[in-house]
């Protein structure tokens, strides 16, 4: 019977930051073509890596990264929802202020209206 072949290791290279900077395009292309990983060092300490895209993203099977991405997206959606609610509440407050003290009735309130005119112009309409 034939023995199973050992997997061929992907090339790995360590370069100082200055050299990696001058060879960035070449290193990026090598990562895609040969699956080479380049570790960028600063004073001998690893700083960053240029890796093939198949090894960089959550599609690699990194469940922890995928989990964090889901959590972040969930938080973003919740923050967007809260932001819209706050914008609507602020617009309601301005409508009530306009009703109670129409423009021109109070100089301080008119100054506040002018200062917030850009925010008021973007505010969503009533539901």
UniProtKB/TrEMBL annotation:
Which molecular-function annotations from GO does this UniProt entry contain?
DNA binding
Print the keywords alphabetically: DNA-binding
Q: Which domain of life is it from?
A: Bacteria
Q: What is this protein called?
A: Antitoxin (DNA-binding transcriptional repressor) of toxin-antitoxin stability system
Organism lineage reads as: Bacteria, Bacillati, Actinomycetota, Actinomycetes, Micromonosporales
